[in-house]
Every structure is written in C-alpha cells, then in structure tokens.
TrEMBL record:
InterPro entries: FAD-bd_oxidored_4_C (IPR004113), FAD-bd_PCMH (IPR016166), FAD-bd_PCMH-like_sf (IPR036318), FAD-bd_PCMH_sub1 (IPR016167), FAD-bd_PCMH_sub2 (IPR016169), FAD-linked_Oxase-like_C (IPR016164), FAD-oxidored/transferase_4 (IPR051264), Oxid_FAD_bind_N (IPR006094). One of its GO terms (biological process) is respiratory electron transport chain. Keywords: FAD, Flavoprotein. It comes from the Bacteria. One of its GO terms (molecular function) is catalytic activity. This is Hydroxyacid dehydrogenase. Pfam families: FAD-oxidase_C, FAD_binding_4. It comes from Paraburkholderia monticola. Its cofactor is FAD. Residues 37-218 form the FAD-binding PCMH-type domain. Belongs to the FAD-binding oxidoreductase/transferase type 4 family.
Length: 470
C-alpha cells in the first residue's frame, strides 16, 4: 500500500480531526526541540482514546508502517523524532489528557499519557497530595514521555525514579492489542512485572496510554540551604552528614560548579553571586516535611552549624522566604538554558557510584584538558543519586561548529572515563538516536542480546519507534 492509500485508511478509520496529512501541517512535528534531528512522516495521528490508539497501531502493524510515539518533545536524545523514512506515522497522545481518578485513601492518581506533568502535580496538590516527579520541563513534558524515558528529576534522592512511582500501566502493544495493566494495587506477585518492561523502553515495545501513580503527603514546609564547598569531595561529606541527620526529609541535593554560576549570571537577569566570595562549587539542598516550619528550620540550622564546625562547607545560607527559595533554585535551574544561550555544547547525562564522583571529576577533567585546552567544563547534577550532567562548552572565541569537528572525540573521553568508574552513559535522558553508537559500544553484549530478543518478542516486524536505542 502506498503512503497516500495508507493515510486515507487512517482518515477513514479515525476521522480528519485526528489525522494530519498535509505536508505543511506535518512539518512542525518532524524535528526535536534542539534542532539536532529532523525526519519525515506521511501522517500525524492524534487520537482521543485508547481504542483509537489501538486502531492506529493495528493498521500500521498490518501494513508494516513504522510508528513514532511523541510526547511533549522535550527529550534531549532524539527519541521522539522520526527517521528519514517517508512512511513514518507520528503518534501523539496530546489530546489524551484526562485525569481518570484521584484516590486520597489509596493515594493514587490515574492519568492519561498526554497529561502535562505540571498539571498532574497541581491536581495532586489541590487534594493535599504530592506527585514527587519534578523536572525543569514539567510544564511542557507529558506523562507518557516521562514514563518512556524513566525520567529522574530533582527529587530522586527521596522518591526514586519514575518507575518507582508507577503502580500500573495501560498500553497498546505493537500488534494493536491493549495491555490492561492499569492496577492500583501496592502488592501483586502474580508472575512477571510486565509494566516495568514498558517503562524506559522509549516507545520501542508499545505505546503507554495511561498510568496509575503513587501519591505522597504534601510537604508544604520547605527549607532550602545553599552551601559553598571547596571540592566535590567536601560536598559528598556534607551529603553524608545531612542524610544521617535529616533522614527522608532531604528530597534534593544538587551540586554545581563555579563555572555554572558564572554562565548563569552572564546569561540571566535578576540573579547575583550567592556569596561575597566566589567558591569552587555549590550545593543546593531542599528539605521538606509536614511539621511546623520552626521545627524543620531548627533541624536544618543545627545540621548546617555542625557542617560549618566540621569544615564540610565553606559558607551557607538558609532560605528565609519563598522569594529566596525561588532565587536559590533559579541558580540551579537556569544552568541548562544559560548554556544553550551561550552556544552549541555537548551534553553528557551520566550516572556514577556516588562515592566515585570526586575522583571521576578530577580524572575526566585532566583527560579533557589534555585533549583540548580552553574547553569549559559545565558540571552540575543530582549528586544525591549519582546523576551528573558533565557538559562541555566550546572555548571562548571558538567557532559555533567547534563540536562538529571535536565533539565525538571529547564525548569518547568522557564516556570512557564513566565506564572506568563503573557508571552508566545515560542516567535519566534515555538513548534515543543520540547515544545509539555508545550504547552498542559500552553495554554488555549479553544485555544487548536479551534486549533485542525482548523487542523482537513484542514487535516482530520492528514497527515501533525504529532507529531508537538500537
């Protein structure tokens, strides 16, 4: 069946309000938001229901037409962008954005995959509950994309990755069958936990259409600490103390270097140096609880006082107002946007054994400097869970296409060192198109073989999100 005939079959089954076939209207759906990848497609399908998703995928399966699931298009690895085959069908669940239920006794939320994450967080807050998944892109990313990449975010140290928040899933498999796993049970030991295969699979095993998520009590009492540190090792000693003293109240422990702050201040209005002196590194710590603010503040001030006495930080400031909380968080949250404004750069989303982070930063820094003088190392991340964003910006004055010539060599230096320390080349952004080569190079061959066999079992004709991961 040619593209025109197949597109007509989609229109016949799903209707013109759900199917886009005009090239000019398809064009905005063909690129990732960073402009790194651009593909082709014969149609964009925007279903209203899970049954419509099943109808679309069944048609594609019968005709061997590739399906590219797409969420909010906030991914950094090209996982939701089609390849250059003209017969691709882009499947967007942006019209499936219903919250099906919120249960404040079982503490669950059931929502469709097209829901914006920030809207879900606000819906939970409205019934005095917390959905802890929190990302910089939460007001544009969609739940389906969060699930498909097993997103992390700033609260992992307390609540875990996305998969740890999921109780059940509904999904459409590559043959058009609906997987009815949308359970809210806390305990279910009836064989394999099939939902976990779909989480983090980047749409290669099927399309997640809805999820049942865990909710937690709202922690409205928040205290933020911004601490200056002389080294990553000092930051980890501070983390050890805070974890010991504050227990589960600590929900974020973010590290960033002085170079990050310099770039944010150069590119962002309304912020200033956090301390009188410039320090090699900074740690932003958020503690939250349901107790009164005075009790939490007393705990924080006691622990930070001990940290200063033991020289586990060089200076520290405790938030006194919501405005100060927001200002402290902006220093961390604006890093990615500041680096984007600075120009083309290399992103490395890696994870490491937490205790190995200081040694890794020292050794990889030496490797980078030997390879290319003047490279600016913009290093930040979720220290509390071992996730480091080891980004590189081009030397000052270098041409904008600097990384076109040097990027592959520098990335290999970084990832070689990650593997030497027993880390992972992807912590929370997935593989997509960006990391396929490195995935094949660094992943254990047995792991890859088993993954390929699982994918073939789910999708024998290879129609689901082709060219991603493998």
């Amino acid at each position: 069946m040619n593209n025109s005939a197949f597109s007509q079959s989609l229109l016949d089954k799903l209707g013109p309000e759900a199917v886009i076939t005009t090239p000019a209207d398809i064009a905005p759906w063909l690129s990732d938001f960073r402009g790194m990848y651009k593909g082709q497609a014969q149609a964009v399908v925007r279903p209203n229901t899970t049954d419509d998703v099943a109808t679309c995928i069944a048609l594609c399966a019968d005709a061997r037409v590739p399906v590219v699931p797409r969420g909010g298009n906030t991914g950094l690895c090209g996982g939701a962008t089609p390849d250059t085959r003209s017969d691709n069908v882009i499947l967007s669940l942006d019209r499936m954005h219903a919250i099906r239920s919120i249960d404040t006794i079982g503490n669950t939320l059931v929502a469709e995959a097209g829901c914006i994450l920030g809207n879900l967080r606000r819906a939970a807050a409205d019934v005095h509950r917390l959905l802890p998944l929190s990302l910089a892109a939460e007001d544009s990313c969609q739940l389906g994309g969060n699930l498909s990449t097993n997103a992390g975010g700033v609260n992992v140290v307390r609540y875990g990755m996305t998969r740890e928040l999921v109780l059940g899933l509904e999904a459409v498999l590559p043959n058009g069958e609906i997987f009815h796993g949308l359970h809210t049970l806390r305990k279910d030991n009836t064989g394999y936990d099939l939902k976990q295969l779909l989480i983090g699979a980047e749409g290669t095993l099927g399309v997640i259409t809805a999820a049942a998520l865990r909710l937690y009590s709202r922690n409205d009492v928040r205290v933020i600490v911004l601490a200056a540190v002389d080294s990553p090792q000092q930051a980890l000693h501070l983390f050890e103390l805070l974890f010991e003293r504050s227990g589960p109240r600590m929900q974020a422990f973010e590290f960033f270097t002085a170079e990050c702050v310099d770039m944010v201040l150069a590119q962002t209005d309304g912020l200033r140096q956090p301390f009188a002196d410039r320090h090699p590194g900074y740690v932003l710590i958020e503690l939250a609880d349901t107790v009164d603010e005075a009790s939490l503040r007393t705990l924080v001030e006691t622990v930070i006082g001990e940290a200063l006495e033991r020289e586990l930080c060089a200076d520290a400031a405790v938030s006194e107002s919501i405005a100060q909380v927001n200002s402290m968080w902006r220093l961390r949250e604006e890093i990615s946007e500041a680096q984007r404004a600075d120009g083309p750069h290399l992103k490395h989303d890696v994870s490491l054994p937490i205790a190995s982070i200081p040694a890794f930063m020292a050794s990889v820094g030496e490797r980078i400097v030997k390879q290319q003088e003047g490279i600016r190392q913009i290093v930040f991340g979720h220290f509390g869970d071992g996730n480091l964003h080891y980004n590189l910006s081009r030397p000052l004055g270098a041409p904008r296409d600097f990384f076109a010539e040097h990027g592959a060599r520098l990335t290999a230096e970084v990832l070689d060192e990650v593997m030497r320390y027993g880390g992972s080349i992807s912590a929370e952004h997935g593989i997509g198109q960006l990391k396929r080569e490195y995935f094949s190079r660094y992943k254990d061959p047995l792991d890859i073989r088993l993954m390929r066999e699982i994918r073939k079992c789910f999708d024998p004709h290879g129609i689901m999100n082709p060219g991603k991961i493998f």
